[in-house]
Amino acid sequence: MATAMEEPRKLRGHKSTATCCIASRDRPGIVLTSGEDGCICWFDLRCKDVQFIIDVGTEPVSSLCFKTGNENILYASCGNEIKSFDVHTLSATSWKPLESYNYNKDEVNQVVCNGRSSFLASADDSGDVKIIDLGQKCLYKTLRAGHTSICSSVQFIPWRPWEGSDTNNNSGQCLNPAFVHSIAIPEMDMVDKLDKICAVARGDGIVNLINIESELSRKGTSSKGSSSSSSNNVVKRVCLDYSVGGHNSAVSCVAFSLFQEKGRFLISGGNDKTVKIWDCFKCLDPNNNNNNSDLLHLNINLSKKVNWLCTNQSDSENLVVCDTTRVVKVYSIS
């Protein structure tokens, strides 16, 4: 395991803590960040300075996502509201949103768009997940029964286009332990190598890799065509804890890598001021024979707690980290 790292590149533009970051799939080097200052910063890593800043409002911007298949459309959550913007129509003097959705009762923690760009999901502090029909521009349904407290994260499941996975901070749910801060699900072009899994960032410092189809088949709800996940040769659950080099306090974010061989690495960031890069192939290898010493590929020590992180497809400057400062850090992982 390597620990030495070059000094990260620093992206400046926010006036207060950076809360979220996303990287473009279609335009290499484009990174967007949001902050408690109510702004979104648009960076091009080929350039030195921030390209432009979108003034969303007075409340912190908690989450960002692109519209799948059309990255000119951007969604941002602030308070209990979600706003959409068309970057082609923005100017230095006008930040008028295309649409505004006010269906959530409480503060939105995460907003995501499904693979068909037809629905938007938003998870909030009341425990609700609102599904918004983007074509009809209206509320499609509310997912409420699953949670009795905060819903901190939500993701659509790409191989189950009408289903999603979400997290909450009470125990006894189908897939998730207590105090889950974030979940990540691999994209469809990663599934052949990783299987149909979900990464879970837990408040006790543990990162779980859970085979979704195995869990659902155990509950009697497995979908057709998921026989590979019910094979006896599939690792159904992996626990990445302190004993294998993991975090020693709450994990705030997890993401699968887009750089190099897509999905090979799982990146986790935590309140222990570290970022861990895990080798997913080794973690999920059923023939690993409990050789846990090489599961952790890289450890990065920071000076502050991690709020969010994301990766891009570049060979360098491919890991973006938002910590509890206003300066966003960019690392090169090889």
Automatic annotation (TrEMBL):
Q: Give the top-rank taxon of the lineage listed in the UniProt record for this protein.
A: Eukaryota
Q: Does the keyword Cytoplasm apply?
A: no
What keywords does the record list, in alphabetical order?
WD repeat
Which Pfam family is an annotated match for this chain, by its short name? WD40
Query: What residue spans do the WD repeats cover?
Result: 244-279
Q: Does this entry carry the keyword Ligase?
A: no
PANTHER family linked: TRANSDUCIN/WD40 REPEAT-LIKE SUPERFAMILY PROTEIN (PTHR45296), TRANSDUCIN_WD40 REPEAT-LIKE SUPERFAMILY PROTEIN (PTHR45296:SF1)
Full protein name:
Transducin/WD40 repeat-like superfamily protein
Give the species this sequence originates from: Arabidopsis thaliana
Give me the gene this protein comes from.
MRA19.19
